[in-house]
Design goal:
Layout: H1 2-25, H2 29-50, H3 54-62, E1 72-78, E2 86-91, E3 97-98, E4 101-103, H4 110-122, E5 127-136, E6 148-156, E7 168-174, H5 187-200, E8 204-205
Parallel strand pairs: 1-6, 5-8
Antiparallel strand pairs: 1-4, 2-3, 2-7, 5-6
Helix pairs in contact: 1-2, 2-3
Length: 225
C-alpha cells in the first residue's frame, strides 16, 4: 500500500510541475484553463493517496509551497569526528535517525542551507567543504510526497559537541559499521554511497545516459540526431 501511495504522490507531483509551467508560460486563456484543470487533477490524485477530501488537497496544491517548477532540493550534512564516526540526529516526528538536513529555502545557496539545517538540528557551526553526493529520491527506497534531489555535503566543524534542536530527540556520532537500525527514509542506503565517496574522493550522482535512448525532437531540426 505504501508503494502505491508513493507512486500516486510522484505522479501527482509531476502533474503539478507541468501545470505550474504551463500556467506560467501559457500564451492564451485556453492553455491557462487546461493548466488549471491539470493542477486540479494532480490534487485529486494526491487526495486519493492521502485519503482526504479533494477540496482540502486542491487548496494545498494552490498554496505557495506547491508553486514550483523544479524538484524540491534537500540538503544533508555529513559531519565526521576524529574517529571517522558520522553525526546523526534522531527525529522527533518518528524517532528515526538521519543526517542533519532539510529542504533548502529560496534566497540561500545549497551550502548555506545545509549549514543552517546543521545549526538548527544539531547546534553545530562549520564550513561546507565538499559535495559528496547528489541523490534523486525516485531511485532510492524511501518515502516522499514530492520529487526531490538530495545534496549531501561534507561539513567540517571545530566544535563537535552536538546539541539537539527542538525537532530532534537526540544527536550523536556513530561508526559506519554500527549505524542505527531505525534510519529515516532512504538515509541508510544513501549513507553507503556517502562513505564510498569519502573514501574515493569522488562525488556520487545517479547515473544517466542518452545513448540508445529515445529523445524528444520538438526542439531539434528535422535532421538533428
Amino acid at each position: 500500500m505504501n508503494e502505491l501511495r508513493q507512486s500516486l504522490y510522484l505522479i501527482a507531483d509531476e502533474m503539478r510541475g507541468m501545470a505550474t509551467l504551463s500556467r506560467t508560460f501559457s500564451s492564451n486563456v485556453y492553455e491557462t484553463e487546461r493548466a488549471h484543470r491539470m493542477m486540479e487533477l494532480a490534487a485529486d490524485v494526491a487526495a486519493l493517496a492521502e485519503g482526504v477530501p479533494v477540496e482540502e488537497m486542491r487548496a494545498i496544491f494552490e498554496a505557495e509551497p506547491w508553486l514550483r517548477s523544479s524538484p524540491a532540493l534537500g540538503v544533508d550534512a555529513a559531519v565526521l569526528d576524529a574517529e571517522g564516526r558520522i553525526l546523526l540526529i534522531q527525529r522527533k516526528d518518528n524517532g528515526r535517525w538521519a543526517l542533519p538536513g532539510g529542504i533548502a529555502e529560496i534566497g540561500s545557496t545549497a551550502a548555506e542551507a545545509v549549514l543552517r539545517e546543521l545549526w538548527e538540528e544539531a547546534g553545530l557551526r562549520g564550513e561546507a567543504a565538499r559535495l559528496l553526493g547528489l541523490f534523486d529520491n525516485r531511485r532510492w527506497p524511501g518515502w516522499s510526497k514530492v520529487h526531490m534531489w538530495h545534496l549531501t555535503f561534507l561539513v567540517t566543524c571545530a566544535d563537535l559537541t552536538p546539541a539537539p534542536g527542538i525537532e530532534c530527540l537526540d544527536a550523536r556520532f556513530f561508526a559506519p559499521e554500527a549505524l542505527p537500525s531505525e534510519m529515516h527514509s532512504s538515509h541508510g542506503p544513501r549513507l553507503i554511497e556517502t562513505f564510498a565517496a569519502l573514501r574515493s574522493g569522488t562525488t556520487y550522482f545517479d547515473p544517466g545516459t542518452s545513448v540508445d535512448h529515445a529523445m524528444p525532437m520538438d526542439q531539434r531540426p528535422e535532421t538533428g540526431h
